[in-house]
Amino acid sequence: MKLIWTYSKRYKRGSKNNTLSSDYIEFLYKKSIKDAGNQFKKIIYTDEESKDIFKDFVDEVKLIEPREFVFLADLKFYVLEKEQGEFCCIDGDLFLKKNLNTNKKTGFEFEFVDFKALEYSEIFKKEGILDIIPYWEKSESSFNLGLMYFNDDKLKKDLVEEFKKVQNFYLKKIEPKYKFNAKKLQVSICGSQFFTSSFFHHKNIIPEFFGKDNDNEEKFEHIAGRKKDRYLRDFKQSLI
After folding, report:
1. DSSP character for 220?
2. Total domains present in the chain
3. Among 7, 8, 27, 168, which is least packed by CB within 10 angstroms?
4. What is the rounded distance in angstroms from the CA atom of residue 140 to the CA atom of residue 224?
């Protein structure tokens, strides 16, 4: 199986990402890649600016075509469009401790309800998202995309095609009026995570949730959000 990371300094956004250095974020990526072990083919999608940063840590570096920023998860869906067969996208601040085992053809980190996503969803509905994605309200939950596993090319293709509709809707109807991206507000929780949950509920597909029974971080450790600086001391010591 292929394990795939995405990295671009242009996508270094979020309350913690904005305050932590790129060097520290790259340190986390390298730890994530090394901690994954050698049982996977390791690939990173990145841009021209960063193509040499991880070349000694992965089996293959693939370049991302220049693109307009819409949602924080854009690059993961870019990978979904480009890759075929069995693979898993993984966040650069997620550290595997055990193999990802599943008998299902799709999987994500976990399912949850985010009230900010629901707030944004009301705005999306007000501006006409149901005309584009009729099943938008199929679920009130969101899927955490820290892990995105696929072994179903047809389903993956359908998801990407629908996601592009959401991107185009956002650029035409939401950003010009509300300017969330210009204000550096994270709408990806709605445009990608809430959308993905709605898509799977619409399809009546229950994916694997790798984060189930991982409260003690026995399967993997994900230091997203407020936990992002957990390894800052280790990073500083590595510079000595």
Report:
1. E
2. 1
3. 168
4. 22
* Tokens linked to 136: 């938008």
Q: Kindly state whether residue 108 falls inside one of the protein's structural domains.
A: yes
Per-residue pLDDT tens for 19-72? 789 999 999 999 999 999 999 999 999 999 999 999 999 999 999 998 899 999
- The model carries a pTM of 0.95
CB 25 within 8 A of CB 66: no
Q: What are the b/e assignments for 85-115, b being 16+ CB within 10 Å?
A: eebbbbbbbbbbeeebeeeebbbbbbbeebe
Q: CA 240, CA 231: separation in Å to the nearest integer?
A: 15
Domain with 7 in it: what CATH number? 3.90.550
Residue 202 token pair: 């619409």
Strands (E), 55-141: 60-63, 87-90, 94-96, 106-112
In the block, residue with structure tokens 């242009």: 10
Beta bridge partners of 147: 90
Whether 234 is in a domain gets the answer: no
